């Protein structure tokens, strides 16, 4: 059983059920174990209509400070709930969108001095008016002092999730789920089996472990952390070692002093814990509350938990584990998802790259060409090959003289937005890994002509072209950074940069982009910690053809992965990476990546598109359906989420991406198509010309893309900023419709509803018995709002 469990783990960043056709020396394709579940929040709401805003809350003056408006609004909503024991705090990652003028305010509930980890409120404010808000604050009786609720009153989200997965497996295999050959022949059941194995192998540990594991001291996090590591690790040797030497591991943990801050912080100190088994960096630990459903229908309780941030080789978890015994895992999110500008550095000449240019998705669609470094004075003011000495992680501990100046110019694939390098060993080190050096000319011009091999040296043949691979990855990642920046993913909203040019947000979080990562095949993944910590992208070789195919050369895969960083940072605010963990929310995290990748590769002549077709060496690609307007080609509707095989986030994401694809085509029918998705570069004075890209505007009116494809990208990104933490399909849909109201005054109200309703997500769509992991019975809604129906 143990060997079977180990063999079942998959790298599930992009591919989900990616097909593999191993060559002679490939060996088994590893699967990345990942945990993801949490309690239901039936009381959570997202209100985007003026009629849903709290009754009696009058708009303040147009020049009122948005933070003051937020304070007043929160107090108005909470009313008598606000006591000495229950309060709130405005998070520091709140910000104002420079284009729309909407201020996104993020609020966290505080009870007895502890944060409620899932007590979130996001409030969207403009001109003194609350446009919309989401709210998942705890509404029950607040304990008078820090303490834990009687465990017998609480449901167990972990066990509940696993019970449903087990029932679903039995219903589909009619036999023991781990041993049924059906599970390995049917990709849908195989994925369900993998999800069950990843999440449920140790679900009973809190109840069955020896008493020494369950020391009932809520001030001692060590038993809770070790029990989480048993569930989290993919390594059976580590599991056995922890179980056999529990006390030894407890005693070997080293707790550093609480994290120091320049200014005092509210709440309990955050601890750093070293020597935790199977981790690659110190674990962060702090006490918090979390909301847990009671066994009595409709009841919710606050439980004290230890919140852990656990960085492992293939995962980066945010977990909540009961502070008192039995130490149950209540919630877990895997962050890995299978101003004034200083003087610019003196650049002798722009870099050039021999790559598949922007718009060519993969080698099957066109040839390579020499292209120049893109200098966008807004998105990348210093270009792609410059980084401040002070922000360069390769120079930590090195002292500099003033003669060297502010900027360091590089001749490798190392810059302010991305560090690109090989990672053949599949480890977490990256600074000293190999990357090409093009010298003073910065001409990254390398050949690419892999040969068919007998299979024994297929990987070595692919590695011969590592210079080409890294140059392509660096080029694509920088362009995605610049594109998303121009649509609003900037410093204050949490983008990925080492240096933020004094524009706000947290720094030192450029993307670590690993080419030909040796930790897997036939996939890709992206880890998104909160703002101020580096995102990490791992791109793999695909052994689906001879010669091997390199995922770094398929732009759609790279764009999909980078879009995980985009959606995670924009949803719920840049300091909260826990909003897209599972169920419909986690699925949309996958779907946005597919939609944006498909939109970027499309052109004015409509076509259907597959995802990952070149890398996987199959015309259908790695999804159930290609993305198409033709319902006989892609029949996905909202109701499709009820079908067997749509438990995983990738399958859920397919449905969301297909819906967005249909919506975007409606906008293109109405507004036409732009051959260029990049907005015009700023003029010398910093103003952005309208050109043929934006509508003419004046005063404080936001810039509005004039064509349907560029407008759809803008509305999708703006919608991410507006929607609540842990959004449903309905919430994300309503946020996009509100984004259009803010941007255009609602002129596309009916066009958007027509697109959503065409695939069953009209205003009459509904779901009964929805569960946090995506279950429930859905009903398609094809009707339009009354205002959009023909007389």
TrEMBL record:
Note on cofactor: Binds 1 zinc ion per subunit.
Gene Ontology CC entries for this record: extracellular space
Domain FTP, first and last residues per copy: 92-137
Any single biological process term in GO: proteolysis
Main localization, broad class: secreted
Subcellular location: Secreted
Active site annotation, chain numbering: 561
Keyword Oxidoreductase on entry: no
CDD domains, alphabetized: M36 (cd09596)
Enzyme Commission number: 3.4.24.-
InterPro entries: FTP_domain, Fungal_virulence_M36, Peptidase_M36, Peptidase_M4/M1_CTD_sf
Keywords in alphabetical order: Hydrolase, Metal-binding, Metalloprotease, Protease, Secreted, Signal, Zinc, Zymogen
Assigned protein family: Belongs to the peptidase M36 family.
Protein name: Extracellular metalloproteinase
Lineage: Eukaryota, Fungi, Dikarya, Basidiomycota, Agaricomycotina
